[in-house]
């Protein structure tokens, strides 16, 4: 089913999505990869304030290439989400509503998704140049010293993703394997 949603994502929208839905996101999302997640985790351990409010927001696991002239951003493909699994449950418990990446997630992340009514989306790996066309603005908002791993605020328009893990814990990677085995 095709769905069009706004980011930040409302609780109602997140809970209405089902594994396998094609979703087009419009609004504000954030980027953060390994180094930014590690730094945010260290900030939380010190009981300090994060550089972005997690409430209802979406983090895209992506480090862009340099922007071409006249473009907001360079190639913007997803990175492997499991590298953020150590940090994701804490951010989900702070209200993070969506994550975009590629690949499977740990059971701890799945449990945190269900506990918080969140969702994990996949973006198509290898399609970074095409995905970048859906990003209309990009600005670094934290950890500039991390270069491509800095936290960025992105404005996106009809950014295409697929729901992989929904708020009920349904995991598309698992259900597709089961369906394939039956064939």
What does this structure look like?
- The protein has 183 residues and is α/β, with parallel strands linked by helices.
- The protein has helices at residues 11-16, 34-45, 88-93, 107-116, 128-132, 172-182, and strands at 2-7, 22-31, 58-60, 98-101, 119-122, 135-142, 151-165.
- It has a five-stranded mixed β-barrel with strand order 2-3-4-5-7.
- It is globular.
- It starts with a strand and ends with a helix.
Record the SSE blueprint.
Elements: E1 2-7, H1 11-16, E2 22-31, H2 34-45, E3 58-60, H3 88-93, E4 98-101, H4 107-116, E5 119-122, H5 128-132, E6 135-142, E7 151-165, H6 172-182
Which terms summarize this structure?
about 180 residues; alpha/beta; 5-stranded mixed barrel; 6 helices; about 25% helix; globular
Strand order of the largest sheet: 2-3-4-5-7
First-residue to last-residue Cα separation: 22 Å
* Low-pLDDT residue intervals, each spanning 5 or more residues: none
Radius of gyration: 16 Å
Structural class: alpha/beta
The helix content is 25-40%
- Count all strands and give the number: 7
Give a nutshell description of this structure.
The protein is an alpha/beta fold and 183 residues long. 27% of the residues lie in helices and 27% in strands. It has helices spanning 11-16, 34-45, 88-93, 107-116, 128-132, 172-182, and strands spanning 2-7, 22-31, 58-60, 98-101, 119-122, 135-142, 151-165.
